[in-house]
Amino acid sequence: MASWYPQISYTKVDDDLLEILEPPGVGWWLLLATALSCVAMGGYAWSIQVLEGIGHAGITHPIMWGVYITDFVFWVGIAHSGTLISAVLFLFRARWRMPIYRIAEAMTVFAVLTAGLFPIIHLGRPWNFYWLLPYPNQRYLWVNFRSPLLWDVFAVSTYLTVSTVFFIIGLIPDIAAARDRATGVRKFLYRITSLGWTGSHKQWRHYVAAYGFFAALATPLVLSVHSVVSWDFAMSNVPGWHTTIFPPYFVAGAIFSGLAMVITITIPMRKAFKLENYLTIWHYEKMCQLIIFTSGIVTYAYITEFFIAWYSNNPYERYQFWFRPFGDFNVAFWGMVFCNCVAPLSLWFKKLRTNIAWLFLISIIINIGMWLERFNIIFNSLSREFVPDAWGNYNFSWVETFITIGSFGWFFMFLLVFIKVFPAMALTEIKEIMIPPRRDPASAHH
Amino acid sequence: MAKEYVVVGRFQNVDDTAKAIRLVRGQDREDFNLYTPFPNHDLEEVAFEGRVRSPVRRWTLLGGMTGCLGAFLMTIWMSMDYPIRTSAKTVISIPAFVIIAFECTILLGALFTLVGLLHHSRIPNFFSSPGFRGDFTKDEFGLAVRVSKDEADKLKAEFEQCGAKQVEVQYVR
Asked: Can you list the domains of chain A with their CATH numbers?
């Protein structure tokens, strides 16, 4: 299929896509109960850590950035492809983004909400988290603007704000469409949240202009945020971290993992809500092309890291990159290579990339691989720095494991509630790419 | 004479709607609203003939400049007010502050764009708009024109000639 225009009526689009908002079935409640149970596990574990101290986490010298920072980078990465699909592909006028961009944007917002918890969880005294903000205080202290950790505060909070605004603005016309069909409490909810949108030509004029500006602002922002996250590592002189390749390597990895998460989420949705006419194999093939591309960049970055370590003739760098494949955490390294470099190669074959079950499996494998990538970067480098006397290893604690599981529950809890409350597929944009009705159908054009 | 009525033409295709808009514009009527379920370039061109671009872009520029300038002023002033001298780095480290300024440029640019959008689109507006119908967010194109009582019947007939599926005359005041 060279392109994709749904040959159905506008009413049918509304009927099919707003049906997602119908009262949920047993499956949805079971998933929500599972997500809430995970959140309860994470909440319990965190409460123990807050009440009794950070010692409950496995982080200890020399690995002071443990699972929490791994989780932070993982969730920021997941967030990225939402903005890529909504903003970058909007600027490129990629029509295949239409059915998936809403769910990808929701994923962005909820993933950043999840990521933002981890630096706070990582703090010994999390109730003082607001010390990161430059606010007037009685001690006349200001924050250190030269610290990458502070750049993170600005980057992640800007990213959360801008992606939330972009997400909500995109939702308004669709909520208005839902409002005009809803009754009772839902009608009241949609009346409020659609802000009185009518779709008049004066509103569309400003809306289309503003949407373009949001996309234009979000595009450099998405590149900057994961670059800033990578500078948390690259600005230090720890072996394996102090490298200029980190920003593009992190951004490509983020898009790679985010696309995989979009596939993980949309495949069950497609099945549950019978969206095969909207989320076609053609759409999944387009996502697979981007996955193959970003997997190639990530693989190239891994190889470059090894080459530069050898070429630099720096003994600490060389040792670090020997330790990764053959040291204490080598299972994580080879797992990462398999999941991120080898498994996605199967998508080169049309038979496999058009097989939905295979795609679902590969998307989960990629996400495991991207979590392992962050694990490798953090654990290997911190466990083998410069002085052998300062080397050390790491043991997971149950608190960290529960909080990590809780973060998945937290993310999916928001996502499950969202798809049942607001339109999870972009009605307006799907209608926009359909051939508009003409008096003389032969005059229709795009 | 006070314009007390709204004539609402309900159309099912782009060509008939465009014809009705041209008719309304040809009569020098500016007090009309075109409702569409999605933005359509053909109809926009007809409805906005000779009009300027959306002023939202000025809000974006203003927000971006405010964010950039504000961030540089904030970082420079705070660094001078509470100097943290580390590793022989200058107190006012512009390259580091560029990152803060970049993020603030985007942040305020987006927030000002949001304010501009809400302001110019006249939302939130929780009062019903005369002439708006629920089907205009679904599958119909609507053209609502405020007219006096004398003009209403004539315009209704003209909309029907243009191919309107249905024309309603609504008393608004």
From this structure: 10-434 (1.20.1630.10)
- Per-residue pLDDT band for A2 (boundaries 50, 70, 90) equals very low
Q: Which of B81, B132, B138 lies closest to A142 in CB terms?
A: B81
With pLDDT > 70 as the criterion, what percentage of chain A qualifies?
Answer: 97
Contact B138 A181 (CB under 8 A): yes
Look at residue A67 and tell me whether its pLDDT is greater than 80: yes
Distance CA A162, CA A215 (A): 10
pLDDT digit string, tens, across residues A399-410: 999 999 999 999
Question: CB–CB of B106 and A177 under 8 A?
Answer: no
Q: Which of residues 66-105 of B touch A (CB under 8 A)?
A: 74-75, 78-79, 81-82, 84, 86, 89, 93, 96-97, 99-100, 102-104
Please indicate whether, in this complex, the C-beta atoms of B38 and A173 are within 8 angstroms of each other: yes
Say whether residue A47 is in contact with chain B using an 8 A CB cutoff: no
The partner residue sitting opposite A207, judged by closest CB among B109, B117, B132, is: B117
- How do strand B141-147 and strand B5-11 relate by DSSP bridges? antiparallel
Residues of chain B with pLDDT under 50: none
Residue A109's pLDDT is what?
94
Residue A231: both structure tokens together: 């500078």
Contact in structure between A166 and A105 (CB atoms under 8 Å): yes
DSSP string of A297-311, one letter each residue: HHHHHHHHHHHHHHH
CA dihedral of A192, A196, A198, A204, whole degrees rounded to 10:
-100
Question: How many other C-beta atoms can be found within 10 angstroms of the C-beta atom of residue A128?
Answer: 10
Q: Is A2 exposed, middle or buried (0-12, 13-18, 19+ CB in 10 A)?
A: exposed
Would you call B161 an interface residue with chain A, using a CB distance cutoff of 8 Å? no
**Please, which residues bridge with residue B169 across strands?**
B7
- Interface contact B79-A145, CB threshold 8 A: yes
Q: How close is the nearest chain B Cα to the Cα of A230, in Å? A: 13
CA distance A388 to chain B (A): 25
> How do the domains of chain B map onto residue ranges?
5-53+124-171, 56-121
Chain A residues close to B43, C-beta within 8 Å? 201
Q: Taking CB atoms and an 8 Å limit, are A213 and B113 in contact across chains?
A: yes
Query: Which chain B residue shows the shortest CA-CA distance from A195?
Result: B124
Q: Domain B5-53+124-171, what architecture? A: 2-Layer Sandwich (3.30)
Residue A59 phi/psi, 5-degree rounding, is -65, 125
Contact status, residue A79 vs residue A388, Cβ threshold 8 Å: no
Task: At A127, list the tokens.
Answer: 């109730």
pLDDT the model gives residue A1: 45
pLDDT digits 0-9 by tens, B100-119: 999 999 999 999 999 999 99
Question: Is the separation of the CB atoms in A107 and A258 below 8 Å?
Answer: yes
Do A162 and B110 lie within an 8 Å CB cutoff? yes
Q: Rounded to the nearest 5 degrees, what angle is found at the Cα of A190, between the Cα atoms of A189 and A194?
A: 130
ipTM above 0.90 for this complex: yes
